[in-house]
Write a structure and sequence with these properties.
By secondary structure, the chain is mainly alpha-helical. The protein is built from 23 helices and five strands.
């Protein structure tokens, strides 16, 4: 169980899907930073800030793609391989331009018109991505191979040219550094020459030389677009990369890159690798050094809280995690869930009540976190409220796709939930949904 709690401290919760075992990670620091980068772009696009969903895939391949429903998926290695935050920002601008241009729906239509031709079977995976099914998202990396047939390549190149040029326009209009996308592409081009197997990001996109031309031609339209890097954003980006590198790479690789360096990002990377390997004394020393230089960084306190939790000092973990929540500008569902996990471990009556309160707040912010529902069920069970524990379990099983078990659990719970309570209304709504879905599934079997 030790490794599981490590994911919680970094807020790196792994969600493994059934089809491709794609690992999505959640990290509050990375999410909030990415949202901050994206905000000027969405404002310029006249999109509401919460209308674009960001997902991060734990993968050592460099890739990014969009799906319908305004979802942007980014591999962790793409962030790590970006030297400066504007390279990452350039990729986000490119992917957002696909959304702004309606390219997902247009590509879907184009593929449907190719349906009567002999397409490779793995092209069918693209349809899943384009309809927003996360579990087949990795099939997007196959587009490059599949698209050379049946005229799809030309259509893809047209979209990529449009997205590259729109990205430049978007960055300039939102007063952001514009050179990042170009420098990122040059980096990929150099890497492809050095490695036998090309980066997968490049295989889903046209030739890099063509893309340079598209981008350079776009620069001419914005001669005054010469915005500089923000030093604070770059510093924070380096910290995120240090932590992310240690989490996604081996100890040997992390030591090779960061050991012996007297920088904040190196200390952060080393604190992470020490924590992951159970070297808690060194982890504490590293993270306390960072806190002494930047006391109000909530993510440093988040890591210290997890270290305390890992060595059984639950009260200290709770104090640090509450400090994290106070330091955050807005409440975050993961931070509240982590606090609740620590409170449940402390297990006093007061802590159990506080844990349930924190989990209800967390689920109000994000009702789709199945593990938060699991913890809530545990909290209710520990306080002796079996009906609400069964109800929370039903919500969890519903999210996990086990509708029959969710319905069975809910039928037991609903008899004993207080009438007219929030849980009672939600349980009745869920009962209606589940009864309809389970009955339909039974009809199909017949």
């Amino acid at each position: 169980m030790k490794c599981f709690y490590i994911f919680i401290i970094l807020s790196l919760h792994i969600l493994t899907t059934s089809s491709f075992s794609m690992q999505l990670i959640r990290d509050v620091e990375l999410e909030e930073f990415s949202k901050e980068l994206l905000l000027p772009l969405t404002k310029t696009s006249n999109l509401e800030k919460d209308r674009v969903d960001l997902y991060f895939i734990n993968s050592n391949d460099v890739n990014a793609f969009v799906t319908s429903g305004q979802h942007i998926f980014t591999n962790t290695e793409l962030i790590i391989q970006s030297s400066t935050y504007d390279e990452y920002l350039g990729v986000l601008a490119h992917e957002l331009s696909h959304i702004n241009g309606g390219h997902v729906s247009r590509t879907k239509e184009k593929i449907s018109k190719l349906g009567d031709k002999s397409l490779p079977i793995y092209l069918l995976g693209i349809l899943g991505t384009l309809t927003g099914q996360v579990d087949v998202g990795l099939a997007a990396i196959m587009v490059g191979s599949a698209s050379v047939q049946d005229g799809y390549l030309y259509y893809s190149r047209t979209q990529e040219a449009a997205a590259d040029q729109a990205a430049v326009a978007l960055l300039c209009k939102s007063a952001q550094p514009v050179q990042g996308l170009e420098s990122f592409l040059k980096k990929l081009d150099r890497s492809s020459l050095e490695n036998a197997e090309d980066y997968k990001y490049k295989t889903t996109h046209p030739q890099t030389s063509d893309r340079y031309n598209w981008i350079i031609s776009s620069y001419k339209k914005y001669p005054n677009c010469k915005y500089k890097l923000n030093d604070d954003l770059q510093r924070r980006f380096e910290l995120i990369k240090g932590k992310l590198f240690a989490y996604t790479h081996s100890e040997k690789e992390t030591l090779a890159i960061y050991s012996g360096k007297n920088t904040a990002e190196a200390q952060y990377a080393m604190a992470t690798i020490y924590l992951l390997n159970g070297n808690y004394n060194k982890a504490i020393k590293s993270i306390e050094s960072l806190i002494s230089s930047e006391e109000n960084n909530p993510y440093f306190h988040e890591m210290l809280a997890e270290i305390y939790f890992s060595i059984g000092k639950h009260n200290l973990a709770i104090l640090e995690q509450r400090k994290v929540i106070r330091l955050m500008s807005v409440e975050n569902d993961l931070q509240l869930m982590i606090l609740a996990n620590y409170l449940l471990a402390e297990a006093s009556k007061e802590s159990l009540i506080a844990a349930i309160k924190a989990l209800n707040k967390s689920l109000f912010l994000n009702p789709n976190n199945s593990y938060a529902w699991f913890l809530l069920a545990k909290g209710y069970a520990l306080t002796g409220d079996l009906a609400l524990a069964q109800y929370a379990s039903s919500e969890r099983y519903y999210l996990r796709g086990d509708k029959a078990l969710a319905l069975s659990m809910l039928k037991k719970a609903i008899k004993n939930i207080d009438n007219n309570s929030v849980e009672w209304y939600r349980a009745n709504d869920l009962l209606y949904i589940l009864t309809d879905k389970v009955e339909n599934a039974d009809d199909k079997k017949r």
